[in-house]
Amino acid sequence: MFGLRILLFFAGIALVVWILVRLARGPRPPQRPRVKSGDTVKCARCGVYVPREEALRDGERYYCSDKHRLEDQGGRQ
Ligand SMILES: [Zn+2]
User: Fold this and answer.
1) What's the confidence (pLDDT) of residue 42?
2) What counts of helices (H) and strands (E) characterise the chain?
3) Ligand 1 centroid distance, CA of 21 (Å)
4) Is residue 49 included in any domain, yes or no?
5) How far is the CA of 53 from the centre of ligand 1 (A)?
C-alpha cells in the first residue's frame, strides 16, 4: 500500500498549504471598482467621459478640463 500512503501524504501537505494560504490572506472585503460606469460624466465640449470627481461642473454641465469649460462658455456668448 505504498502508493496510497504517498497519495495521503501529498494530500495532507496540500491541505496544510491550502489552510496556510487561507490564513495568510485573511478575510478580505470585496474590492469595489475604483470608477463605476455610473460615476462618469460627459464633457459638454468634447464629449469625452471623465470620472465625476475629476470633472469640472458648471451648473448642469460637466467638463473634462477648465479649458473646455471656458471654451464652451465663450461659444455660448
Ligand atoms: Zn472636454
Assistant:
1) 95
2) 2, 4
3) 47
4) yes
5) 15
As for how many domains the chain has, the answer is: 1
* Residue 38 confidence (pLDDT): 67
Q: Which of 6, 17, 67, 72 is nearest to 44 (CA)?
A: 72
- Dump pLDDT digits (tens) for 62-77: 999 999 999 998 865 5
**Structural domain boundaries enclosing 50:** 37-76
State CA 54 to chain mean position distance.
Answer: 16
Whether the pTM exceeds 0.90: the reply is: no
Residue 26 falls inside a structural domain: no
Q: Compute the distance from residue 46 Cα to the ligand 1 centre, in Å.
A: 4
Q: How far away, in angstroms, is 58 Cα from ligand 1 center?
A: 13
